[in-house]
Amino acid sequence: MDKVAFLISLDPGLLDFATPRKNEELVPWSYYSRAPFTAAAMATSTPFFNSVPADSRTGNMELASQIPSPKRFLVTSLRVHIASIVAAAVSGTTVPGTISNDVNQIVSDCQVEFSLGDKVYVKLPVWKVPSGGGLVGFASNNATGGVTSYVTNGLPDQENGYEGAWPIPSNTSFSVLLKAPAPPTLANAVQVTIMLDGWLIRPHQ
Amino acid sequence: MGPAMLNRTAFLLSLDPKLMDFATPRKTEELVPWSYYDRNTFSAGALATSTPFFNAVATDSRDGNMELAQQIPSPKRFLVTQIRVHIASILSTGVWTTGATTSGTIINDTNLFQADTQVSFALGDKNYLLVPTWKLPSGGGLFGLHTDAVADTSAGGSTNGWPRVKNGYQGAWPIPPNTAFTIALKAPGANTIANDMVVTISLDGWLIRPKQ
N or C: which end of chain A has fewer CB within 10 A? Predict the structure, then answer.
């Protein structure tokens, strides 16, 4: 947050963008988009936020790749969350290890790219964009038990996010891509969620 | 106050005079840090696609502390500054001693809640929040290590996010007096849990009420 506040204090254009007018309200908001990856080679580039999701599991965009007018959105942090498909791949003695391997490949070998129009604003390895959330805990097993383990992209703490200030004006196309120029092959199905945290400025209630 | 000294809530208030006005107590009022919480039990089996929280006055303090269902009673008003979701097994079922696989499935259930459900918050008919549950860490919970011998039973514990009280999703969402709000845990997928679980949603914030 300090970084965001400092950026806004430096740039009057950003401050103006983030300041609600008389008939507007400022709402903390997060747009998110989730894509499934199967146990196979990943695509070299996977778009996010490029469609309106069927339900809240897969996202909350109202319009593909845009913030609908009269709303505008200041992105203040980016996050990438990686999870196994929770209804499967959770029991047994070998799967958890391979899930950790899959997450490691995505975190280490993939990049996130955020563009507004044809201008790139962020391009970073996934390890640089921690989720700030996920499962924490401990597990053990005995000879007759199964094994369960989970890993997260970074320390799952909300303060642990890649912060900045990237304004998305109304009805302006943006793109967020997960890039894998040398696509890893995943052993399990995993879900990747990219989240844009920020401040939504919209007409007042 | 310089920007570097502000937290997220304070900075939002500094940008929006309406929020600042809402949060500022009048002469006859006091500002109290407060948390409203509400707990629901989920039985082993399929989850409902949407489960409301804060929609009833709890019979005792285990299950919540609302005075009025889905509303802050006048003349009080409440500025929500953090939203948290805590996920736990039902302790009375003896999860620590019931065998080798239960603790693993409890962790799986916790994982399912945090990775595949979402929380929505609306004031009237306007949405103020819709995020995956992993985005709303509890900021507290079980933390530690466990080992077991071959003859022992296994155990496990997990929390929704790093259990540190400052680890919360911060913002500034005003709830005026006697204004209906809805909070729901959504599970649009065909999600099934293996154990009975309890989920608590907590709204941290500032309660503005008449002075004592």
Answer: C
A140 at interface of B, judged by CB pairs closer than 8 A = yes
Q: Which residue has the tokens 């959770």?
A: A90
Measured CA to CA, the distance from residue A104 to residue A82 in angstroms comes to 10
Cα dihedral across residues A26, B166, B118, B92: positive or negative: negative
User: Is residue B100 situated within a structural domain?
Assistant: yes
Task: Verify whether the Cβ–Cβ distance A1 to B6 is below 8 Å.
Answer: yes
Answer whether B112's CB lies under 8 Å from A90's CB. Answer: no
DSSP A68: P
Q: Which amino acid is at A166?
A: W
B107: left (phi over 0), alpha (psi -120 to 50) or beta: alpha
pLDDT in tens, A6-61: 888 889 999 999 999 999 999 999 999 999 999 999 999 999 999 999 999 999 99
Nearest to B159 by CA among B135, B142, B134: B142
How many helical (H) and strand (E) elements, i.e. helices and strands, does chain A have? 3, 9
Interface predicted TM-score of the whole assembly (ipTM), two decimals: 0.80
Q: Residue A94 — very low, low, confident or very high, per pLDDT cuts 50/70/90? A: very low
Asked if the Cβ–Cβ distance from B12 to A146 is below 8 Å, we say no
Q: Which residue has the tokens 């320390």?
A: A155
- Domain range spanning residue B56? 46-76+83-204
CA distances in angstroms from B85 to B36, B113, B180, listed in the order given: 12, 10, 21
Contact A53/B at CB under 8 A: no
Look at residue B154 and tell me whether its pLDDT is greater than 60: no
How many separate domains does chain B show? 1
Within a domain: B54: yes
Task: Give the DSSP H/E element, type plus range, for residue A196.
Answer: strand A190-203
- Asked if residue B56 is part of any domain, the answer here is yes
Is residue B172 over pLDDT 90? yes
